[in-house]
Fold each of these.
Amino acid sequence: MTTTRSTSPLSLRLKAALCILALAGLAACGGGGGDSSSASSSGSGSSSSGSDSSSSSGSDSSSSSDCSSQTTEGAKLTCLANAFLATLSSSQQSSVVYALTSSNATNYWSNLPTTLVTRHGIALKDLSATAKTAAEALIAAALSSQGQTTMTGERAADGYLAQYQSSGYGQDLYYISFLSSTSSSSTSTMPSASPWILEFTGHHYTFLASVDGDIIGLTPNFVGVEPRAQFTYNGTAYQPMLSRHDTLLAMLNGLSSTQLSSAKLSQAYDDVLVGPQKDGNYPSTQQGLAVSALSDSQKALVKAAIASYASDANGTGQYDAYTTDSAINGTYIAWASYSDLSTKGSYVRIDGPGVWIEFSVQSGIVLSDNHYHSIWRDKSLDYGGNFSF
Amino acid sequence: MAAISPSELHPRAGSLPSWGRLLFLALWLALLAPAAPAHPMPKSFVEVRVLPDRWQLHLILPADRLEAAFVQAQLVPDPGPGSDARPQLQAAAVRDYVNARIGLRSVAGPAWEQHVTAVQAPQGQLDEWRVTLEALPPAGATPDQVVLRDEVLIREIATHDAVISLLQDWRGGVLPSQPQLLGSLGGEHHELLIERRAAQPWRAWLSMVLLGARHILEGLDHLAFLVTLILTVPLQAVAGRWQARAQLRPAVLATLWWVSAFTLGHSLSLLAASLGWLPPSGQAVEVLIAVSVGVSAAHALRPLYPRREAFVAGGFGLIHGLAFSTAIRELSLSAGQVVAATLSFNLGIELVQLGLVLVLVPFFIHTRHWVWSGWLRRAIALAALSTAAYWAVTRAMML
């Protein structure tokens, strides 16, 4: 069974696992699901992975069945975190739980390979089979089904890169750690009544899911990808940033030429501005074009672009907060250099009272084609709002 | 590389940066996050050197970022969306671009007079421009606080970072071997206050002693010459062949004379070349050094110039000293500083030499009657001879 598991398409496995977890209505329990990922293998492939997941439900349910009875997403996540911690040895436990400090929160994630910037915690590849199952259930529970599709595709992209450059890249070269406000040397559980953060970080994908009673934020959430075009990994086709790219491009293409020129920034951007270790590096004033001046259909395109990021979160309410009338009317959109989101140097930004989204097109690193970096931040809820920058 | 900026540079273009920059990168990395040192960054670097009568700024600019800045500033035509074509930059345009965006001034004063002294286009695998400027402090001022304004790439690229380091300030003991990280500029930050260290002469001297020691330890050819020289200390030439000396005293005296002659030779030429009385050492000197190692190795096999070793060592010392002076000349120090730097640099060399002599000479003397000592000497001499031949050929090919 172990062999079958390791070769089955991860996205299907996760979706099946979610069905088992009965995270009501959020998981796409059907076939291919999300807009940017589809099983390219035949029906037999997907059915075999489906049966594989159900055959593994024995170990899943032992840790997750308790959690499915929790009434809030936050309580579920706390329960799953503790179920995961229970699968670890005590030395592993102490290596994944950190004190909730600004330094611990901000310094150990990056868009650079894990060989270049140290991540806290333990990598998925170093977990036992039982612990890995519990870890995957935990990560998935922080995400909507859209978010799971993103995460699965992101990890597949790193697995794809590892075929070209093994050092620093890998589908399971992603680290789990916890930041707990009640951390002490003997901490082995996450608190239900005080803040804690689940940090999941690897090369091109990072989120910090903050819990304070309920899940309140998924940010900072870095999403980059190389290759940007569709690729096939372990028999499944992926293009994890397709919907982000397409909705942002539709947003810009929906502008008149006058609007487009007033949305253009006066400087070039070779990367995101508020990237890793750049917390609080927002421009002193909002720049670009005010969304308040846009038509309803243009505003809908802005909201769709925001949704391509914020709807990755599971139950944080961040998307709703960004798209209230007053929030959307206090939002600006801007772009730099090229508005085609294809040419190197192309850049687009959504800057609202709460939301901050950036998307940057850059040279390839491992491959020759350009690649994407992007980030979703929340001006008040990054790291659960526990720190100010 | 990281409160380092969130970006990556192309490993395919990854070639070795200069050692100074590599060292600096390592320093920067060590300060901010554990990382692999050879990963190049899309940052620019500004190296500041405080020279006796002027300040020097050396900029290292990633070529693709400079091209993007030129497009943004409309100094070259935009290749347009969808094009991967790289605009061609002219050296004169790069000179004017940089000159308009960087400069020094006293805290409460106008910008210093400055001019660009060198512009180097990307060479080989190094996809970066290098620009050197010199700025003149106002007459009579010894500025302890100086404001560096840097908008190179920063004005055009909102996400660009420039890392600023102090490469040299003799008065405060800062030398390129141990640069001082000053900070970084980028975004809305264009100016950095440089506060010079208080005068600490001993720091510079100590750095030069260490530099001298490191120089000879890294200079395999100097070490090889010294080893072949002292190989024959316990021997005397009899009918064209080496025989062990019967007595200890002549061996010790020979050591003193020969090593002192070598030291005297390289000290004289080092000082003369550092002060500019001799022309700068070039590739020809490197070839001559290889030849000197070969001759000395051959002499250790068969006596070529018995009882004249001191003169030969002194003569070869003059050549080696010329090569040592390169390290001091490139600091562009004043005459007084050169003397202090040369003396401390030389002290570092002597200390290493002395250590080597104290270890090897007693060993060679003590084992001079042993059967295998002759074979050991021949093995060492042959190894040195063949290495010297290799050096001589490869260095001569670079002439």
Amino acid sequence: MSDTASLAPVTLSRRQFLVAGTSATGAFVLGMPLPNLLAGDDSTERQLGFFIEVQPDGRVIIGTNQPEIGQGVRTALPMLVAEELDVDWDTVNIRAMPLGLIKTADGYTWKYGGQGVGGSTGLTSNWDFMREVGATARQQLIRAAAARWNVAPDTCNTEPGYVVGPTRGARLSYADLVTDAAALAVPEERPPLKAVAEYRIVGKHHKTIDARDIVTGKAKYGIDTRQPDMRFAVIARSPYLNGRPHSFDDSDARKVDGVLDVFEIEGPAPGEPYQILASGVAVVATSTWAAIQGRAALEIVWDRGPNANDSSDAFWAENARLLDGKGQVVVDDGDFDAAMTGVDTVVEHRYEVPFVNHAPLEPQNCYAFVEADRCHIIAPTQMPAGAIQSAAWATGLEPEHIHVEFPRVGGGFGRRLTNDYVAEAALISKKTGWPIKLQWTREDDVKHDFYRPAGTHEMRAGLNARGEVLAWTQRLASASKYYRRPNMPDENLWEAELYPDDVPRNIVPNVRLEYFHNAIGVPRGSWRAPAHTANAFVIQSFIDEVAHETGQDPLQLRIDLYGEERELAYANHGGPTFNPGRLTRLLEFVADRIGYGTGTPDGRGIGLASHFTFGGYAAHAIEVEVSDSGDLSIERIVAAMDCGYAVHPNAVEAQLQGGTVDGISTALGLQITVKDGQIEQSNFHDYPLARIATFPSRFETHILPYDETPTGVGEIGVPTAAPALTNAIFAATGKRIRRLPILDQLKA
Amino acid sequence: MISFRVNSEDVVFEGDERTPLLWVLRDHSDLTGTKFGCGIGQCGACTVLVDGRAQRSCITPISSIEGRSITTIEGLATSDEELHPVQTAWLEYDVPQCGFCQAGQIMATVDLLQRIPNPTDADIDAQLTNICRCGTYARIRQAIHRAAELQVGGGRDV
């Protein structure tokens, strides 16, 4: 992820933050003011960044400021505004806003608030803000009406689209109040927000904004960008990790009809932070296909670089060697060694979790047009602010001269937190002077990614004669995600891989976590629910193993561990607290739904798992059948999520379904491996995302509301799917999967 | 020179005859509803109808399209108001997440329902091989069954 610290916003007071005004078309707008604008930045559009626009004809336009990657934020955030504004949802139009970075005399600030989605924060970080935007606009309209009626504002109320006064028949439409409302200053004090019980829009099912455009082919993604005089580019990136072109012959490439230019792109020095992923050779052409054909005709001799001997075999062997030694102890509660000397039973196993590719279905792409004093970027990105930084790095332009648009994104999964492809496109446009559409192919995407880190986890638990877990250790040797982060000390590398406050910390008295870093040259980054996918698999598998090896029921052991509802400290993302009793509630629910404990036929088994991820709680119960020859069939899936309060239940359900599919698909068949310094996989034939046939029609998802505070939902449903599946396989067959992906391990 | 029809309009393509239909549609005809996902016929994001049958356009050389009739997602609905039953079912079940694969899923389903008007779950498993990275499969399955119902009521050929 790019470092955005230098673009940290200046702090604005509420009064500076929201301002009312009138747009050029006479609409009432509410948005961010731009204090101390620089000379020349005085266009209407720039002066009135808006979130709400009430047109004179009564139409309401609500701006969305966050990237839509399929998580539904373009629907959910406007729902919050519309709720507090008090309008009918079907009168609302949605307008996507570009990145709102502006430079003021006080420094850079964000016209539309922070813009970026990751870590399941798109909703939660805008929950208060968007409601306040809506409530403030409603308050302005009430004050305008009250002034017209010469009554106190607190004697007035609203009905959808209207202000209603205290006298009989006093009723004014929002449209009639537009001009008056725009003239009123916004008060310093915050407006009251609705109680959840009053909601008419939030918490209800609505269709996804843009769904009609999607099913008719009208929705535009970054890959669909068409601009005047646009040329098309692809890059032949080094297939060797940290390799570079030694020399290349482009004579055949230049003969390909439509090829316009061929030149080298210089990548990062080995071990240094990334702006782009790899060195390579760019081909620019008049069409995508011509560029691809030109690339195929290149003759490149690669300098294989310092990682030419890297391999997965060596990586796993090195992990095993590391685990035989002593690592960095990062958590040491109680006295683990002393406790282990007194226990009745010791359970110990190692698990392996592979590198995986993000594989968003829209391959990376970026439109860039770099001119002498400005740059225009259109890109699928989760982090538009990072896109500005990438373009600034590539062009040398100041951020305020870089205009970033971010259309609907064809999947994120963490890949598009990093904007390396933006930097590449900007480099090519700068070099050629042309508007450039850079296109990655699927092979480019599989072979060049910031992969989910791989690691070997050694787990050990000591239990007393009553089956109580007294001591627990997790020793992880892995390739940290923080590899090649700027200014990242080695002693902090573990922080991306172990989340110390996960179960069973603060539950089991003696807990030790130990980390070993394995510095393979594979790039790595954030993959949906980052380290939770590995840790939930390992912890939830190991709890199952502990239960089986000590004669306990896996459900009951979890319930015994989690215990009653209570708040435990949780310092990692998703905290500050974690309530293990909420996991018990979900587990009991899914176990009951699937008929856990009521017996299954031979060859069938039910597995359970539950986990706390970034503030949200999830549990899965999965029933599988495994034939004598080792064919696996998933017969039934019951998934449940407690996201506190479900702002948009339709989208929550979708994320739980999708997270379940992602977790299962990845566990079944997905891994990235390395041989001779090169990624071995290249496309969906050898990186086989699961298809519909893998998933049964008996696939239930349940939302169990808890309170009135929403958590994010994009990642919560992923981590428990894999261990529920492998626990089910064990229940069906007695075969324990300790190495992902499952592949043909059941055939052995 | 290759002549063919796309969504009932005549198209002439004069470039490299090995160019995949996908890139002709996207770069030449500006019909970007048909998506590029893998380029090797694996994911199905590029699925279009060629003379009414589903085909993966990323591995279909334009030379094989001479005189053929192509329907893309943009040409599936009768009009802006009257969607194809498969599109209607997709909206009823609110299938899309990121939406990138859905044009291909819909075109593949149109073809499936022409061959098997009332498919079982097993038929769907065997016939629908398009990848959805977001994992909308549960809703796709429901929407296919719903589209089958809608087609029985007012079905039509493409």
